[in-house]
Amino acid sequence: MPKRRPQLRACSVCQKTGHNKSRCPELLKSKIIDSFAFDQYQTNKPPVKFFIHDEKRITSRSPHLLDLKPKHDHWNKMETSAPEKNENDLFYFHHEIKNRKSEHAPVQQQKNISEPRAVVFAPLLKPAATKNLFRQAPRKIKPIKPVSRRQPTVWRQFAFRAALVCLCVAAPFKAYGYYSQLKIATGSIAANSTEGFMALQESTAAIMQADLDGAQKSTLGALDKFNIAVRTMNENARWLQKAASVIPVLSNEVQSRQKLITAGQKIALGNAFLIKGVNESQNNETEALTDRIKTIADHLEAAVPNYQAALDDLSAVDADVLPLEYQAPFNDFRLLFTAALNDFRDLTVLGQTVQEIFGGQGLRRYLIVFQNPHEMRPTGGFIGSFALLDVKDGKIVNLEIPAGGSYDLQGQLDTYLEPPTPLLLSNKRWEFQDANWFPDFPASAEKILWFYRHSRDMTADGVIAVNATMLEKLLAVVGPIEDEKRQLTLTSDNAVTTIQKVVEEGPEKADNKPKQIIADLAPRFVSLLSNAKPEQALPLLVGLSDALKQKEIQAYFTDESSEETMRSFGWSGQIAPTKPDQDYLLVVNTNIQGQKTDAKIKQSVSHQAVVQADGSIIDTVVITRQHEGAPGEKFYGQDNFDYIRLYVPLNSELVSAGGFVWPDERKFRAPDPWAAKDKFLTQTEKEISIDANSGTRVTEEFGKTAFGNWLILRPGETGQVQFTYRLPFKAAEAKANVAGFDFKKIIGENDQTSRYQLVVQRQSGQNSDFESQIIYPAGWHPAWSEGDNVSLALNGMSLSSASLVEDGVWSLLMKKEN
Question: If you average pLDDT over every residue of the chain, what do you get?
Answer without folding.
Answer: 74
